[in-house]
Amino acid sequence: MSNYTAPVEEMRFVLNEVVGLEELCKTTGTDPSTIDIIEAVLDAAGKLAKEEIEPTNKPGDLEGVKINEAGKVTTAKGFKESYRHYIEGGWGSLQFSPQYGGQGLPFVVATSIQEMWNSANLSWGLCPLLTQGAVEAITYNASEELKKRYLPRMITGEWSGTMNLTETDAGTDVGSIKTRATPEKNHYLIRGQKIFITWGDHDMTENIIHLVLARLPDAPSGVKGISLFIVPKILVNEDGTLGEYNDLKALSLEHKIGIHACPTCVMSYGENNGAVGYLVGKENKGLECMFTMMNNARLTVGLQGVSIAERAYQQALGFCNERVQGVAPGYTEPGPIIRHPDVRRMIKTMQSITEAARAITYSACAEVDLVARKAPIESLAKNKRRLALLTPLVKGWCTEIAQEVASLSIQCHGGMGFIEETGIAQIFRDARILPIYEGTNGVQSMDLVVRKIIGDDGLAINELIDDMNNFSKTLLPDSALSQIQIERFKDSLSNLEESVSLLLSQSDNRLFSGSVAFDMLMMTSIITATWQMLVSSQKARLALENNKPSSDFFDRKIKTTQHFVDSILPRYMGHFMAITAAGS
User: Fold this and answer.
1) In whole angstroms, what is the distance from residue 435 CA to residue 439 CA?
2) H-helix or E-strand spanning residue 139
């Protein structure tokens, strides 16, 4: 029996009411029929996630992946079959250009679908996630010839994609990479070794398109001398047919804490004659091209935090409603542990921070649509700033709350949570990579403070604070929100503004900005997530006033927001006090 059911009603609510999908489609020139099909799309994706992908999750964790002497990787039982159904359903093509076989749906809609894949099976979901990023990098940076050759079959999912940055001595310090690229007629020969390559080799697709960072012979040192190359596992002929195997292979697989069914490879390029690669973008501009992929990948890693949190919350809720233990206060006989106040506290916390993380993630992904499509020229610059600002918040905060929710889920299970048999231990193990890859959360914190706040003299974050302040003026005390809760939110905005001013006043003090960066990320995220939850509550209250169906759902949404404002928003104060103390 599946332990996961896609929260379709919640997803639909966030897309339609919080993001404002109808207005987004109008603004970006997207086919308005998207609104009419969204429910059917979510239902169909939820069915695939529950019936085809989720059943591979626990067996895949137990079986893992295997590699033979030739470097060929075999995936766990059921992975190929579920991936074939994914291809047949056209799920890989949702947000991509119809010019290359995509369906042209908004990125934020595809985001909601990806959430399902990663909740159902995080290891499995990483394959289409990486392919999506590779498609984006090629779309925005490659020549038309390369786009025509590679994009159509990557968009269908027939071919997968990877991202090759890390080397043994070059992790976060990407400028230290040693992989070389030598010009050779109409291509380049790539030689070097990469580590931690997610889905670097496998048997689910007929070809794998590697995006590899390498250094040309006369390239400048550091990040200014890095170029990006398409290096296919199997060479592709001019007519699109597959040719010979390229000079590359997986040398070994990493033995990891979690995501056991995801092959994390050590990749070797050019052991013999050199691996054939094709330049993407301009020479020595590879990191800029790769960041096209990495920025959206950071959003989708934040989304993975939402996915893991949702899965952990659902499993805890189901267990707590079934597990009978003790007599709870106010009762006279034993019953399910959901009756106990502290268990209810944990469940409410898990639910509220998961829903807040979803709202902030979907809102950030909507900015991707506004930036990438035909947003009004007068707002485009602001949309770009907002997207850049929200990206480290989504990646950082949503992956941090995933750790909390997974841990609370274990706690709800009691001793059974510490036993692999229940499956929650796997969720806890899988979640732990999220604050690390695609730039550690320390990197995200510095990106927020140095580039997104100090770098533009506070413009983007003050725009965000202004928007939240304007929204706060619309809040009136009623049954959904008390005056105390409203004032608590307004106070948080004043404290955020004070923290921004303090950062800008010490903009030359890198030690200070580095020491408070994580607190700044967490504080900004909690307050911004509160804003999104208050928007949700406001929309839910209006729905109740208009006697819309699903009144139970709207009532729960209001109560979840109240819990968030009462119990989660106050957490920002600890971060605020740390920032002001460091600045005194």
Assistant:
1) 8
2) helix 122-141
Res. 288 pLDDT band, cuts 50 70 90: confident
d(CA 147, CA 123): 28
Cα distances (Å, whole numbers) of residue 86 to 128, 373, 462: 10, 26, 42
pLDDT of the residue at 449: 97
Paired strand residues for 67: 73
- How many domains, in total, are found in the chain? 1
Q: Are 463 and 454 in contact (CB under 8 A)?
A: no
Give the C-alpha separation, 221 to 219, whole Å: 6
467 in a domain, yes or no? Answer: yes
Q: Distances in Å between the alpha carbon of 135 and those of 55, 172, 441, 537?
A: 28, 23, 25, 37
Among residues 134, 149, 156, which one has the least CA distance to residue 84? 156
Catalytic member of 438, 463, 497, 545: 438
Residues 6+ apart with CB under 8 A from 264: 196, 197, 198, 200, 253, 254, 256
Please give the C-alpha separations between residue 222 and each of 178, 191, 287, in angstroms, as whole numbers. Answer: 10, 18, 11
Percent of the chain topping pLDDT 70: 99
For residue 484, what are the domain limits?
441-584
Classify residue 183: in a domain, yes or no: no
- Does residue 408 fall inside a structural domain? no
From the list 2, 17, 9, the residue with the least C-alpha distance to 43 is 9
Q: Within 10 Å of residue 110's Cβ, how many Cβ atoms?
A: 26
With bands split at pLDDT 50, 70 and 90, how would you rate the model's confidence at 1?
A: very low
17 catalytic residue (yes or no)? no
What is the per-residue DSSP string for 525-557? HHHHHHHHHHHHHHHHHHHHHTT-S-HHHHHHH
Does the pLDDT of residue 123 top 60, yes or no?
A: yes
For residues 511 and 332, give the distance between their C-alpha atoms in angstroms, rounded to a whole number.
58
DSSP output for 430-482: HHTTTTTSSS-HHHHHHIIIIIIIITTTTHHHHHHHHHHHHHHTT---SSS--
Continuous segment of H or E residues that includes residue 296? helix 286-322
The answer to whether 276 touches 187, Cβ cutoff 8 Å, is: yes
Task: Give the mean model confidence (pLDDT) for residues 270-274.
Answer: 95
Spatial CA neighbour of 200 closest among 308, 139, 126, 96? 126
Residue that has been written with the tokens 């004032």 in this structure: 487
Identify the pLDDT of residue 375. 64
In a domain, 528, yes or no: yes
Beta bridge partners of 242: 236
Q: Could you read off the pLDDT of 488-513 as tens digits, one per residue?
A: 999 999 999 999 999 999 999 999 99
Three-state DSSP class for residue 74: strand
pTM above 0.90, yes or no: yes
- Which residue reads 């070994």 in tokens? 252
Torsions phi, psi of 267, nearest 5?
-105, 140
